[in-house]
């Protein structure tokens, strides 16, 4: 497992979050072109947000988290341009969850492919 990070641009902060294509199939599910999927992310404090992952038609899928859920997160966390958002996948019970943290790099170690968070 890997820790994924993105420094926010103006459009990431005000419209939708552009997702690097290599996140599909590793952190995020692979989805068909011109389709969408709802992705739940959880902060360390337990707050949960639902983001809508959307892709365009080929040749450039250009995945994004659509504005609705993403901008709620931006406002709640008072995100600014150049803030860094960190994402990772971890196992909780019988399910994989996607963790999210802003600004400070999370204190996470990966052991045998599983994320282990330290406080």
From TrEMBL:
Residues 4-92 form the TF-B3 domain. GO terms for molecular function: DNA binding. GO terms for cellular component: nucleus. Signal peptide: none annotated. It is found in: Nucleus. Its main location: nucleus. The keyword Nucleus applies. Keywords: DNA-binding, Nucleus, Transcription, Transcription regulation. Pfam families: B3. The keyword Transcription applies. Coiled coil: none annotated. This is TF-B3 domain-containing protein. It comes from Morus notabilis. The lineage of its organism: Eukaryota, Viridiplantae, Streptophyta, Embryophyta, Tracheophyta.
């Amino acid at each position: 497992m890997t820790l994924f990070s993105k420094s926010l641009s103006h459009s990431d902060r005000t419209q939708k979050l552009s997702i690097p294509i290599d996140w599909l199939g590793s952190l995020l599910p692979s989805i068909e072109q011109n389709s969408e999927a709802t992705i739940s992310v959880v902060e360390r404090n337990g707050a949960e947000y639902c983001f809508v992952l959307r892709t365009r038609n080929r040749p450039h899928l250009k995945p994004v988290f659509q504005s609705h859920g993403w901008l709620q997160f931006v406002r709640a966390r008072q995100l600014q341009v150049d803030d860094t958002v960190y994402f990772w996948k971890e196992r909780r019970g019988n399910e994989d969850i996607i963790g999210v943290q802003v600004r400070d790099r999370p204190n996470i170690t990966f052991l045998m492919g599983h994320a282990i968070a330290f406080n």
